[in-house]
Amino acid sequence: MIVSFLVLTLLGVGSVLTYQLPNGGKIWALLVAGSNDYSNYRHQADVCHAYQLLHSNGIPDENIIVMMYDDIAYSNENPTPGVIVNYPNGTNVYQGVPKDYTGKAVTPEVFLNVLKGNADAVKNIGTGRVLESGPNDHLFINFVDHGAPGLLAFPDSELYADTLEQTLREVARNKRFAKMVLYVEACESGSMFDDILTDTLNIFVTTAADPLESSYACYFDEYRQTYLGDLFSVSWMEDSEKENLLRESLHHQYEAVRHRVNTSHVEEYGNLDIGALHISDFLGFHMNGLPNAAMPAVPKVQGSVNNRNVQVALLQKKLEASTTPKDRYAIKFEIHKLLKLRHHLESVVKNIALKVVGGDEGLVYPLVSHRQRLTRDIFQCYKSNPYTLGQLFVFVNLCRNQGGNEKSILAAIDGICLAKPMVEGII
Hints:
alpha/beta, Rossmann fold, 2 domains, three-stranded antiparallel β-sheet, 11 helices, disordered N terminus, protease
């Protein structure tokens, strides 16, 4: 086990604790919110909160890189411009957050190049900063967004499990870290690592959900009319703010979060021996090395919502808060339209499956009811819509059913999609 140590520097009457790893190692962090749009407020709120946690724990800003679309703080829908909170009555977590890569720069390619330390590849993009880590350093990677079997979503594209695994191997081979920890918040996030990530790379991963289930949003805010956080994310951060990180291990935090998150199965992957290390080895620690006594009590989570159903839930909350018949009618119409579009999308997917199996309804049922992991991009039609992510398992099953023959599947996709109108907007 790596033993960390402290250096105490006296400054006047006060004292500052500086955290160091063995052999001059440093802690580096890469924080990524992969979504945009105010309805996904919680993702950027999670990442901003993560930055504040690391910053208050003594990790210098030059060692923290943040990727987020940055369209939430000053959104027309945000009643508190310039303010983002991550839990009810919380403090502003947006203030001071570095904006290394924003807007269209939030892509899988930029993320992977930052992780690899490939400065040439991100030259003239955002701040151009990358992880300048070495063989004695610890990396903390936090990704928050939507997901699907075998992929993590970015605003305009996706990161696939095989691509991430290859990059992790490359970073390990190039000795760019001693130990790495990834915390991943996304639906089916376990599918990015289950039976994929080897335990020989000195990488420890915790995911919000197993390979087959959704993660959950929480903390609905009546004033802001949105969900402030994701249950897995707020749980590990709130645990970090109340525990002594010099003593609490990664595995202890995993168990604490697993018990609090009762809506999905929080999982751990990779080299589980790293779970015995103290959290301070990756997140730093509060200046006094003890839980922050000034932190408010952890709010009780009520009404957590499947991340795929957030858009419907937001409209239902809006309906409950409406006060005029005209507003209620308009919102009900919007809900009806949204549900109709979802039904339309599900119908398209089922028709593709029917076309592939020659119209045999008996074969289609297991295809649309049994989930497997997706490992490649075979669904272009409607892919720009987040609700589509919940349908991708059907195409995985089609691949398995057809023995890997993608020609018939792609022909069916083209045939059905060309005859159907595209669904626009978030459903």
